[in-house]
Every structure is written in C-alpha cells, then in structure tokens.
Amino acid sequence: MTSPTTSTSSAMVSVAGLKRCLSQMSMLAFKATTSGEEAWAHTWSRFRQSRFNARRIRKRVVFKHGDCNVIQGNVAKRRRKYLQDIFTTLVDAQWRWTLLVFAMNFFLSWLLFAVVWWLIVFTHGDLSEEHLSGNETWVPCITNIRGFTSCFLFSIETQHTIGYGGRVTTEECPEAIFVMCVQSIAGVMIQAFMVGVVFAKLSRPKKRTQTLMFSRNAVINHRDGIPCLMFRVGDMRKSHIIEAHVRAQLIKHKVTKEGENLPFFQTELKVGGDGEEDKIFFIWPTTIVHKIDSKSPFYNMSANNLLRERFEIVVILEGVIESTGMTTQARSSYLPSEILWGHRFQSLITFKKESGEYEVDYALFNNTVEVDTPLCSARELDERRAMFNQDGIEENSKYLTTGNCRMGIGLFPSVRSHSSDTLSSMDSLSIDDGHIEMKLPTSPIPVTITAPEENVEETTPLTNGKIPNGTFKNKSLILHV
Questions:
Q1: pLDDT band of 244, cuts 50, 70, 90
Q2: Triad 44, 46, 49: Cα angle to 5°
Q3: How far apart are CA 475 and CA 408, in angstroms?
Q4: Are residues 283 and 240 in contact, defined by beta-carbon separation less than 8 angstroms?
Q5: Measured by CB atoms within 10 angstroms of the end CB, which terminus of the chain is less buried, N or C?
Q6: 106, 115, 104, 116: which is closest to 159 by C-alpha?
Q7: Which residues, in sequence order, are CB contacts of 149 under 8 Å at separation 6+?
Q8: Secondary structure (3-state) at 345
Q9: Least confident residue range of 170-184, 240-254, 384-398
Q10: What is the pLDDT of residues 199-223, one digit of tens each?
Q11: Which of 210, 196, 219 shows the shortest CA–CA distance to 88?
C-alpha cells in the first residue's frame, strides 16, 4: 500500500508533465499561426531546389540525353505566333495535348454543324407539333428530325459519311444541301489535318535518336604520338544511319581583344574517325577523335588545368535514316569532370567463328582502361620533344621526367630510330671482343675510317660495309664521310 506522500509527489510530477506538454503544444500552435506562410514558402523552396538541383549544379547547355537546357522568355506575341504555326505547335506539344485537340476538333465540329442543322429545320417549321404528328403532305428539310439530338446524330453521319439511312436531306431546302456540302468538305479537312499531326509525331526522326548512343565519358590519350580527345558513338539498330557525320563544338567563356565578354562562345572542333574526316562509316560503335595540335583550343591545357576549366563540349551526330529517308540529329555533351585523362576505350567488337559474324558487346560501350599518358599540355610536350630531338638522349634511358611530362621513348620515334638507314641508330653498331662491326647501307658515297695503331695512321677502306678483323687494337674510331 502506497503512502500519502508518495501519491502526492507522483501527482505533482504528472501535473508538471501535463503543463510542460501543454506549453509545448501552445508554442507549436503559435509558430504555426504566426509563421505558417513562411514555413510553406521554405518547404516549397526546398522542393524546387531538390527538383532542379541537377540543372543548377551542372549548368549544362545540352543534357546528356540531347535536350537543350534553354528556355525562351519575354517573347512578344508568343501565343499569336504559335497559333499561326499551329501544325508545328501540335507536333511539338505533348501527346496528351495533341490527343485533346484531336478529340475537341471533331466534337466541336459535330456540335457546330448540329446547331446549324437545328436552325435550318426550326426556321423551316419541321419541329412544330402538327408536322411532327405525321402529316403526310408536309415535306421536311431532313427526314426523321425530332429535336436537337436528332440534329447532332445527323451531323455526325454527314461529316463521316456513315449514312445509316434513317435521316436524309430532301430537295425542299437548298440551304440544307449547301450546308451538307460544306460539312463534308470541313470534315475531310479536319480529319486530314489531325491525321497528319499524329503521323508526324509518330514518325519524328527525334525518336530515332533514342537508339543512338554516346559514351558516358570522353577520354584523352595518345594515338601515334599525338594527344587526342576521344569519345564513342554507337547505334543499337540494324538499320544504319546513311551519310553519318559528326560535329563537336566547344562552348566556353571568352574575352576578345577589345574587352568584349562572350559568355557562350562556340568554337568548332575538328573531329572524325581518324581526326581529319568528319564522315564515318557507321556500322558499329566508332571512336571519334579530335587531335590536340597547335590549332586545337586544348593545346595549352594540361591535366591540372582540366580540373579547373569551365567549358562544355557539345557533340552532334547527323545522318539520314535508312528506313525512312528522314534526317536525324542526336546530341550529347561532356563537362570537364566527364573527361578522363589517361584512359582508352575498351574494345567491344569480336568475331564469332561459330556464326561467322562480328558481335558488338554494348555492355563494354562505356568501359575504359588506364594508359600511360603525359600529364602536361600538348604545347609543353611539343617543346620537350623539340628540345630532346635537338640535343639527343641517352640510349639506355627508358623515361625522361621533366615537370608534369613523363615522356617515354616510344613517344618520340624521331629520337631513337630503329631504321638501318641512319648512322645515328645504335642498333647498327655491334662491338665484339675481336672486332668492331658497323652495318652500313649500300651507298655510292665513299666512307673512310682512320684510327691510330702504334703511332701509325692507317687508312683502311670498308669491305661490304665491315671493318676487317685485327685492323684496330682499340675501339675508338673517327668517321669521315
């Protein structure tokens, strides 16, 4: 049995908790009443921010799927201009609006001509009680018309040439015959117009671009010793794109010599399957190449600069659809964060011996592999190449590291030549214990080699490009060509 003191203390605690709960509820109610509009506005702003967060962060001109991130504002008389080109407006509109306009055109035309037919029979007196009772001497404009509903049904039958045979236009009213001709012509025009809009929407070449693919990333690596920017395009359909050609534009901020700011200056990039010709034979995924030479806007850009640059590369694939003969255009874009430096696309075409066909594995379409690529700009790389080509390098050095340029011997074929047509090639000289043998090309130019032997200078001609054994006791020689 609990004591009175314990029960009193528990009651006080419960009362205190109740007061605290009531105070919190009153505070929440006060905040809801005083700042309800502000809270709603804050919630709406967060919703909009989450809805358009991707667009605000990326700031793309062209999205990855090809849509342009551009809207037109403050266009004078926009509605009037859109109505003047109603066909294009309906083709560009969404399907729900096109189908709504399609249905409303027919329904309103039926209703309009139903009113006209009702006025004709009403003014002629066909709807009076004595004429509707079945007077055989009265000839109506339209037979079996008993009200507006009958006029609406006759309008539908006339416009679509249904002809159930229950209602027929007579020779009593010439205006009825004229209206019947007008409605027949109007019905054909409306039907042809709306069918054309629907067919144009279904056969738009824009839908063909859904099966044209661009690689998720672009890559930068060396091809034949030249830095190249590359991206990959592919087509998933068996019907090909005829006369396919590729374009690429660099969109970047530019300040002219006169101080004019051009925030979205477009520079055309020279691209192609080989970096020269923009037309491609588009039967399988193709790697598009842009050579970073002295004419390229990326000539002074290194790997570190790429991380700080702000630009966008818009790539465009155009061609004729083989099945329809219509021209299509697919678009995509690459930001600096989507360009992988020192990567190369993985091969995805294999030959199947079983069927004798080439198979394209689109699961590898976006796959890349890392390759050894200098981190410096193409300009700095050319300067290093020119310097080492002039001064020469050590024959046993595999890599030369200068700043951000880690340059392999294979990048400079002119420095170390494996051809036997030059005397600078170390592969043409072989040294043994017994003799020195130099392989020289058969040439009409006389070559004389002199070397000291016991303080006696002896001149010995070459025999078939070789020095006889025992001619020299040391391995130093002077060439006089």
A1: very high
A2: 110
A3: 31
A4: yes
A5: N
A6: 106
A7: none
A8: strand
A9: 384-398
A10: 888 888 777 888 899 999 999 999 9
A11: 196
**What is d(CA 36, CA 450) in angstroms, rounded to the nearest whole number?**
103
Local confidence band at 118 (pLDDT 50, 70, 90 cut-offs): very high
Q: To which residue do tokens 């006089």 refer?
A: 480
pLDDT in tens, 373-403: 999 999 998 888 888 776 555 443 344 445 5
User: Across the chain, which distance is largest between two alpha carbons, in Å?
Assistant: 151
Residues 6+ apart with CB under 8 A from 229: 218, 219, 220, 269, 289, 290, 292, 298, 313, 339
Which of 62-71, 351-360, 432-441, 458-467 comes out lowest in average pLDDT? 432-441
Which pLDDT value is given to residue 411?
A: 41
Which phi and psi (to 5°) does residue 263 adopt?
Answer: -70, -30
Distance of CA 339 to the CA centre of its chain: 14
Q: Which range in 20-34, 132-146, 315-329 is most confidently predicted, on average pLDDT?
A: 315-329
Instruction: Yes or no: say if 170 and 140 are a contact pair by the CB < 8 Å rule.
Output: yes
pLDDT for the residue numbered 120? 92
Packing angle, helices 95-124 and 174-202, rounded to 10:
180
Distance from C-alpha of 120 to C-alpha of 31, rounded to nearest angstrom: 67
pLDDT range class, residue 181, cuts 50, 70, 90: very high
Write the CB contacts of 349 (distance below 8 Å, at least 6 apart in sequence): 284, 285, 358, 359, 360, 361
**Quick check: helix, strand or coil at residue 65?**
coil
- Joined tokens for residue 85: 């080109």
Planar angle of CA 205, 208, 212, nearest 5 degrees: 135
Amino acid at 450: T
DSSP 95-115: HHHHHHHHHHHHHHHHHHHHH
- Apex 43 CA angle, 37 and 45, nearest 5: 100
Is pTM beyond 0.85? Reply is no
- Tell me the percentage of the chain whose pLDDT exceeds 70: 68
Q: Which two tokens stand for residue 309?
A: 């640059």
Cα-Cα-Cα-Cα dihedral sign, residues 144, 146, 149, 152: positive
Six-digit token pair at 340? 């992988």
Beta strand ranges found along 175-310 (DSSP E): 212-214, 218-223, 226-235, 241-255, 261-269, 286-291
Determine contact, residues 78/281, Cβ cutoff 8 Å.
Answer: no
